[in-house]
TrEMBL record:
This is Uncharacterized protein. The keyword Transmembrane helix applies. Pfam families: DUF6220 (PF19728). It comes from the Bacteria. The chain crosses the membrane at residues 43-61, 68-88, 100-119. Keywords: Membrane, Transmembrane, Transmembrane helix.
Amino acid sequence: MRKAFAGVAALLMVVVVIQFFLAGSGAFDNGPVDEAFKPHRSLGYLTVILAIVLTLAAAVARMPGRIIGLAGLVAGLTLLQPVIAVVAKGFGDEGTTTTAGQIVFGLHAVNGLVIMAVLRNVLMASRQQAAPAHSARTAS
Ligand code: HEM
C-alpha cells in the first residue's frame, strides 16, 4: 500500500507540472479566456480529487502522522485554487477584471508553487517509506 501511496504522490507531481504548462499555454492563447483555460480548469478539478485520494491513501497505508498531515495540506491547498479564482472574479463585474481581483488571483499562481513545494516533501517521504525496511532505516 505504501508503494501505491508513493505512486499517487508521483502522479500528482506530474499532474501539477502539467497544470503549470496548461496555465502558460492558455495565457498564450488568442481565444476567449473561458476556452483558453478549459484544459487547465478541467485538470485543476482532477488535481483536487487526486490530492484527496493521496490523503486517503496516506491514511490507509498507515503512513506517519506528519506525512498524512502534509498530504492533507496538499489537498487543502489545491481546494483553495478554485476558491481563489471565484473570490478574484467576485471583485469584477460581468467578466471584467479589477486591480483587486488581479492581486487576489496572483495568489493562485503563488499557491501553485506552494503546492509543488509541499508535494515534493510528501513525494520524498513516500519514497523513503516505500523502500525496503533496511534502506528506510538507514535513510532516517
Ligand atoms: C497546482 C497548481 C494549480 C491548480 C491545482 C489549479 C487549479 C485551477 C482550477 C481548479 C481552476 C478553475 C477555477 C474556476 O472554475 O473558476 C483554475 C483556473 C485558472 N488557473 Fe489555475 N491552478 C494551478 C496553477 C496555476 C498557475 C501556476 C497559474 C498561472 C500562473 C494558473 C492560472 C489559472 C488561470 C488563468 C485560470 C482561469 C481563470 C478563469 O477561468 O478566468 N493556475 N486553476
